[in-house]
Amino acid sequence: MKPIVNPSFWRGKKVFITGHTGFKGSWLSLWLHHMGAMVTGYSLQPPTSPSMFNVCHVNRLVKSVIADIRDYQQLHTAMQASESDIVIHMAAQPLVRDSYRNPVETYAINVMGTVHVLEAVRSTRGIKAVVNVTTDKCYENKEWVWGYREHEALGGYDPYSSSKACSELVTSSYRQSFFSNAYIATARAGNVIGGGDWASDRLIPDCIRAFEEGRHVRIRNPHSIRPWQHVLEPLHGYLALAQKLFEEGEPYASSWNFGPNENDAKPVEWIVERLCHKYGNTEGYEIDAGSHPHEANYLKLDCSQAKAKLGWHPQWELERALEKVVEWFRAYRDNQDMGRVCIQQIEDYMRN
């Protein structure tokens, strides 16, 4: 069967990525470079230390512009200089709990950052396809037991979720109001996991830090259910979507869900128990019963559209995804070439 992401399509393509120094952006940069694309990245410095970007030496593989998405003029200059064919917008303030602490910054980055990207695209010739990466949390959460579909109402209890819903609305407005030559879509993914994520207040990084320090994992909401998926799953979707936008245009210029199969939407506690087992951690975990800001309890995505129209399907079930996480962090602990480890995992994923 013909793969939905065709390496020969990407060979020689000029791709502009915002947020390339982050966890997902670094994985995407490595994948694109491996397929022969010429990548220009625009982002702030890596958000964590250590970081996937530095550990895998992504800066050696892409043209890297270290700058702020809130600086429109610098963004515009960098995008025009890149002479890109495709734009993938991933720069964001991505953490729910940080959005409670810094709501103004969250809206400035996630909403006006999107405006700046689309304005820059609008005045840059040659760009044919744009994918704006938002989140599964952009939906008005009703704690349904079924998955949200792309036409469901947008919303957001916390500033992060709300700001991403706003980013969706901005994209829809720009698509209808201004664009005729560039085709624009939004991509909504679930909770991504993978090697190289060291962010705070994320379950997998919190677990890995606890394992390495020989202490209990502290979890806030053990029964909350999330659509967990390996980071390569949504990236595969973004690449497939960008390729379709470039090749076929209008039919794909809409919103798309990229989540796991239904049986991989699991409670937090299940994830921690499986990860403890796979990592060989004997300390276990404990419940943090303190007071915490509101977070959704139940969240799933319906990905029927991506499966039917893009031919995209999850490749790795959750057990395999967790094994890949453990494999990556053990390789890092053993001082292996982490860029090579990532490429091996990407090749393994594509062989599926």
Automatic annotation (TrEMBL):
Domain NAD(P)-binding as annotated: residue spans: 16-324
Record InterPro entries: CDP_4_6_deHydtase, NAD(P)-bd_dom, NAD(P)-bd_dom_sf
Protein name: CDP-glucose 4,6-dehydratase
Coiled-coil residues: none
